Amino acid sequence: MKNLKKPPIGEIQDYYNSYMNLGEGYIVDLVLATRISLRFKEPLWLCIQGAPSTGKTEVLKMLKDDPMCHPLYDITGKTLFSGANGAEGGYIPREVKDEGILIFPDFTTVLSGPKYTQSNIMSQLRVIHDGDASRLTGIDTKRKKPWSGKVGLLLAVTDAIEGFKKKAATLGERWLYYRHFVPEFKPKDYKKPSIPKEFPKEVLDECIDMMNKVSLPEWSDSLDRKINCAAYWIAQSRAVIKRDSRTKEIGHVFPFEGPFRLINQLSTLLNSLIMLHMNQYSSRINKIFIEVVTGCVPRDRMELIHLLRYRGGNAGLERKELRNSLNHFGNSRLTHLIQDMLSLGLIVEVGGKYNLEPDYLELFAEWVVAEPVFEKVNG
């Protein structure tokens, strides 16, 4: 461990910064962390969400020549698994085989496709996540090939994913989210972009090779608690509310999802990021962790949570104060948002003022503030 030099992630960051603006560049850390996560029993499943033309797809391209990574640019309900003659069981058994990272550079096309196709793809992705296709239905069983394996997922998508987030928990959510932001474009600061040089593949190969040699830290109980609290907080924060399609009244409040998939994914995320930075836990890793955790919550709920947490203080905020700060929501949307979060027990109303529910606020503070402490580092 002591003989390992600084990882070359900085050179990869510099390459992208030479011709586009990625802001803090957390997206580069996360793409590399996803690749590294194949070392674990349950690799990362990560959705990178952001506006068009912000560099998402470009950064994902860094893995296009990696033999363990498999980009898919076009997908139907029969792409991943298929009983068709000559399909050899579909893309997963034929190309990915028993281990790899599945990459969707533009998953928005799936979300905008027919609902039946979308449902079929999501069902097959759940099978892939669970690592066993023995229970797969809907394909020719006579040509169905047995498959089991370990597959990570990396996809880029626009904000069209927000609508999916609000119902995904009922389907058994499998992945984490990261909202990719870039600094606001100002015409006066415009500079003609330089032509990018050839991607330094040898640097990427060196980075992955080094990560495969890094041993894991033994972290303290404080980090386990941070991960557990974050998982429970996500489960509560993104719980599903179903409204009547005609009256728009609340029809059903779904129970909170179990936190265990989230705990596994968040543990893999932190392990992979720590490995990427050579077992040096830093404020950068902590910030990325916070961005991913909050990215798992629907945007409108997250906006209200932040508003009440950081502007409401102990006193809380009146409805008109919420409306003034969230004026881009519209009155009916804000009303539904408040009703949903009251029904879920995430906020309370006392004396005409709204605030985060005390236990929920305490859970929030447990993971967003606390930084983990390592007992020792192996190696």
Can you give a write-up of this model?
- The protein has 379 residues and is an alpha/beta fold.
- The protein has a domain at 9-217: P-loop containing nucleotide triphosphate hydrolases (Rossmann fold).
- Helix content is 43%, strand content 13%.
- It has helices at residues 9-17, 26-36, 56-60, 91-96, 108-111, 115-130, 161-168, 201-211, 221-237, 260-276, 283-295, 299-312, 319-325, 331-343, 358-368, and strands at 45-49, 69-71, 99-104, 150-157, 176-179, 217-219, 241-243, 250-253, 317-318, 347-350, 353-356, 374-377.
- The chain has a 5-stranded parallel β-sheet with strand order 2-3-4-1-5, with helices on both faces. The chain has a 3-stranded antiparallel β-sheet with strand order 9-11-10. It has a two-stranded antiparallel ribbon with strand order 6-12.
- α9 packs across α15.
- The longest helix has 17 residues, at 221-237.
- It is globular and about 60 Å long.
- The model is unreliable at 372-379 (pLDDT under 50).
Keyword list:
43% helix; five-stranded parallel beta sheet; 379 residues; alpha/beta; 12 strands
Which fold name is given in CATH as the topology of one domain? Rossmann fold
- Content of β-strand: 5-15%
User: In whole angstroms, how far apart are the ends?
Assistant: 5 Å
State the shape.
globular
What would CATH call the homologous superfamily of one domain?
P-loop containing nucleotide triphosphate hydrolases
Uncertain residue ranges: 372-379
Largest sheet: 5 strands, parallel
Q: What is the number of helices?
A: 15
Helix coverage percent: 40-55%
Major β-sheet strand ordering: 2-3-4-1-5
Structural class: alpha/beta
The succession of helices and strands, N to C, reads HHEHEHEHHEHEHEHEEHHHEHHEEHE
Please, what is the average pLDDT? Answer: 86
Radius of gyration: 22 Å
Number of strands: 12
- CATH architecture call of one domain: 3-Layer(aba) Sandwich
CATH class of one domain: Alpha Beta
